[in-house]
Design brief:
- Keywords: Membrane, Transmembrane, Transmembrane helix.
- InterPro entries: MFS, MFS_dom, MFS_trans_sf.
- Residues 1-386 form the Major facilitator superfamily (MFS) profile domain.
- It comes from Muricoccus vinaceus.
- This is MFS transporter.
- 56% of the residues are buried.
- This protein is mainly alpha-helical.
- The two termini are 24 Å apart.
- The chain is globular.
- The chain has 16 helices and no strands.
- The chain has a single domain (8-196, 206-381), classed as MFS general substrate transporter like domains (Growth Hormone, Chain: A).
- Helix 2 (30-41) crosses helix 8 (149-188).
Length: 386
């Protein structure tokens, strides 16, 4: 279940670069373009975040199906289709008439399809199909590279919007999907070997890593996913509520990317001997600690650094912990089941946390910290299989 004939560094490099582009032009887009987009359509910003949440809901619904397709057919074609869907969604956003918000929502729907087909979970399932139980290293490598998505995406989208307007920014991102990300997938990602014939029961957790373990893992990842989605959409705004200027808030938020990368470098070096469960507990503790740091007056940068480090490890854990607990066989389908509640919560997170910010101000920070503690408690109850 491995692909020894293909250079892993080439595959990791291609997927890492493509993932960076995919996250930057989709997940991290609303934080910059929501306000000018809302002004253009005469809508409140919460309406744009609501459309984004709807796109994430579509991602949640499609996740299990995407995982099964990758298990049976490999991920190269699915990832290539994600580039086409993201480019189409961005193009529709760019040309949507100001008097036709339904066209705008259609664009976000296409974005949801692209995210379902092409973000981390699809890439990780592709790597599991290529390398089986040895996929932990490639997963970490891809996540390490894509940790720069927010650092690249937020400032670049802000600059493009300032120079060409939000519509021009969307159109340029669409061209990058077609001109760069699509060739990376088609030319550098090999086809997965055919899966070994298995019975349906082999795609279900058994023994010590049973359904109770799966439920705890799903709960932990769901809480973490809520916080990650909320901050992806609102981190500059939250930091601004703490008293930072817009420029300082954006600069601090841009620290998340480097910290994600640094944490992932540590994962493949100093932390590589840790079981993924121990890494997951360490990572999840970053969210309540970040909330405590901001509440204690340590500043926006402290929050971004701690939050970014936790995020960096959580992204890897999301791919490696299910692999360690349940194995590589049926990985994509199982990931679809485990991550379905996380995706549903993530679909609501930008809108829910945005409303909390409007009504509670900086008090919304305690929602972030409390959810992090729930996730940490679930991981503490989770047990490593014998």
């Amino acid at each position: 279940m491995s692909a020894p004939g293909h250079g892993r560094r080439r595959v990791v490099g291609a997927l890492g670069a493509a993932q960076t582009l995919a996250w930057a032009c989709s997940y991290y887009l609303p934080a910059i373009v929501a306000a000018p987009m809302a002004d253009d359509f005469g809508l409140p910003p919460s309406a744009i975040f609501g459309a984004f949440s709807a796109s994430l809901l579509l991602t949640a619904l499609l996740g299990p199906w995407v995982g099964r397709v990758i298990d049976h057919n490999g991920g190269r074609g699915v990832l290539a289709c994600s580039n086409l869907a993201l480019a189409a969604g961005l193009a529709v956003l760019a040309v949507s008439p100001a008097g036709w918000p339904l066209v705008l929502f259609l664009g976000w729907g296409l974005m949801g399809l692209g995210m379902a087909l092409g973000l981390y979970d699809a890439a990780f399932a592709t790597l599991a199909g290529l390398y089986g139980k040895d996929a932990r290293g490639p997963i970490s490598g891809v996540a390490m590279m894509a940790g720069f998505a927010s650092t690249i995406g937020w400032p670049l989208t802000a600059w493009l919007s300032a120079e060409f307007g939000w519509r021009g920014a969307c159109l340029i991102w669409a061209l990058l999907q077609l001109g760069l990300a699509l060739p990376l997938h088609l030319l550098l990602v090999p086809a997965s070997p055919p899966p070994a014939p298995v019975s349906p029961s082999t795609e279900e957790p058994e023994g010590a890593a049973g359904w109770g373990q799966l439920a705890l893992l799903a709960l932990a990842l769901t809480g973490s996913g809520f916080n990650i989605a909320a901050m992806a959409a609102h981190l500059p705004g939250l930091l601004g509520r703490s008293g930072a200027s817009p420029e300082a808030a954006l600069a601090a938020a841009s620290l998340v990317g480097p910290m994600q990368v640094l944490a992932r470098v540590l994962d493949v070096s100093l932390l590589r001997r840790l079981h993924p469960l121990a890494t997951a507990r360490l990572a999840t503790a970053g969210h309540p600690l970040a909330a405590l740091a901001l509440a204690a007056g340590l500043g926006p940068a402290a929050f971004a650094l701690v939050h970014g480090a936790g995020n960096g490890l959580l992204t890897i854990v999301r791919g490696t912990l299910p692999l360690a607990l349940f194995g590589a066989r049926g990985y994509g389908a199982r990931q679809g089941i485990i991550l379905a509640p996380m995706r549903l919560i993530q679909a609501l997170a930008p809108l829910a946390f945005g409303l909390a910010l409007e009504r509670m101000g900086l008090g919304a920070l305690w929602i972030f910290g409390g959810v992090g503690l729930i996730s940490l408690a679930a991981l503490m109850a989770l047990r490593r299989p014998a």
